Each structure stands twice: as C-alpha cells, then as structure tokens.
Amino acid sequence: MRKDRRRASPGLPSGRRSSAPHDSETFKRGFVSLTKLALSGVQITASALDVASEKVLFSIDDHLSVPTASLGKVLLLIEVAARLTQRDISAHGLLDRTVVDSAADTGLWQHLQVPTLPIADLAVLVGSSSDNLATNVLLRHIGLDAVRARGESLGLHRTFLLDKVRDFRGPDDAPHFSVGSARELATLFRNLAEGSIVDVATSQQVLAWLGLGSDLSMVASAFGLDPLSHVHSDHGLLLVNKTGSGDGIRSEVGVLRGPRASVAYAITMRFNDAELTGRLAVLDGMRTLGTDILEYVY
C-alpha cells in the first residue's frame, strides 16, 4: 500500500522520522514543511544523525547523489589538513594566485592586494568565506586526483569534488563543482566531530577552519548565533557548518552540539529560482528544519 501511495504522489519525499527521546514531536515540523516544498516541485535530499548514537533522526532521499554547490570544498580542506598534520612538505610554503585561478562571487582574496599567501591561510579563507580564488589555487597545488583519492579512502561513494570553480561551465567541463549524498555528508561531519577523519589532529584542524564560516543564512539561521563570531560555545551551542549556493541550489552540512545532544546534518534543495518567493520558501523550509535540530540538542 505504501508503494501504491508513492506512485500516486511521486513528489512526496521518501522521508523517515524518528523522534527525540525528550519530545515525540521533534522533526515533525521540518518534515511537514519540506513535504509541502516537495509537492511544489522542490527536489530535496536531507539527513540528520545523532552524533553519539549515529541514530537516523531525519531522512529524505539521503542516498541520492546531487549537485551540492560549494560543499565539495570540505574534501579539499580535509586533504590539506591531512598533509599539514602529517608534516607533508607539500602543505607548507607560499602560493601565488594567477589569472587561470580567477573565479568571481564568493571570497575575499579577489578584493585584497596581496598576491601570495601561505597554504594554511588559504585554507582559512576557504573555511571562513568559501573563497573561490583560494580554492582554485589550493586545487592547482594539491591536485584534484589527490582530493578524490582522499574521499575514496574515507569511504565516500556518492560525494565528490569534480572540478575547480568556474565562472562558466562549457561542454568539456564537469557539469558541477561537486556532488554528494546527504547521508554521506552528514556522516562525514559526524566523524569529523568524533575525530575519526584521518586522525584527531586532522579532524580538529578541519573543524577549526570551518568554524570560522560566516554564512548562517540557511539551516543555521535557526540557532541564534553570531554569524561573524561563533567559534566558542554560545548558550551551550557550538556550530561548525559549510554552505553552498548556486542557481536553484541551496545546500548546507554541519554539526551542532548542544547541552542535551549533538546532531550532524546535511540538506540540499534544488528548485526553480525564477521568482524570489520560491527561494524564500526554500530558505524558510531550511530554517524550520534547523529549529527542529535546535530543539533536539537544547
């Protein structure tokens, strides 16, 4: 009978919900909100995991590999951090920006006068402002193949960094910067929080870079944190996240620690971005899910 209902309503997200131990209604609002968005044509993949128990708290088509905008930069930061903590000589030194590396939109380096920066500083720029120019310079130095190999070693089968950042994608370029599954991304951040990505030092370094992130416009908009300063616990909450934005795409992956529990989450929304109302509805749905996550951990 469930299969028959699924065929009759193909737009309905195939979600699973499991309530928090202290509130049987937790995640109900997010599920209802995202179901309405799915019925309006928004394509959704989402996953939320309890960090301690790995229990699936919320899930919508989390196995699907979909475009994730800038989320693939996390894989690059993992490779850079691993080389730094393992004292690899390739992780040290200064890197120059070139015309080939240029990419508009996000980031600060394109607005700065300094043409050369240390590798670790470039990672700070990527973690804090999702800097496209810094991403491309690091990728040119580290190599896309090395990032892919690192992802494979971490057991990622549906989450990949496919290309450098490009202002325009031609027919010979990868169709997207990165793709990923919500379940793999949520699990990746759960493992970062537990210190099991490569090793504890590498995991902590990646979390330190991403903890500088200033985009709290999506799921994290529900947490009440200062976008420009949340590296320390605030009202018992500690957040590390990474967002991604593109034409008709909003993505976020993160881990939120609270007084009662910790949750690792990932969500990607693909939608018709022709009207502002559609984008605002997507952001509102992401915030509703964030409210549920906050309720679970606080």
Automatic annotation (TrEMBL):
Membrane keyword on record: no
Taxonomic lineage: Bacteria, Bacillati, Actinomycetota, Actinomycetes, Micrococcales
Beta-lactamase class A catalytic domain location: 50-267
Gene3D superfamilies reported in the protein's UniProt record: DD-peptidase/beta-lactamase superfamily
GO molecular function: beta-lactamase activity
Record-level GO BP terms: beta-lactam antibiotic catabolic process; response to antibiotic
Protein name: Serine hydrolase
Domain of life according to the entry: Bacteria
Pfam families given in the database record: Beta-lactamase2 (PF13354)
Region ranges (Disordered): 1-24
InterPro entries: Beta-lactam/transpept-like, Beta-lactam_cat, Beta-lactam_class-A
Keywords (A to Z) from UniProt: Hydrolase
Species in which this protein is naturally found: Subtercola boreus
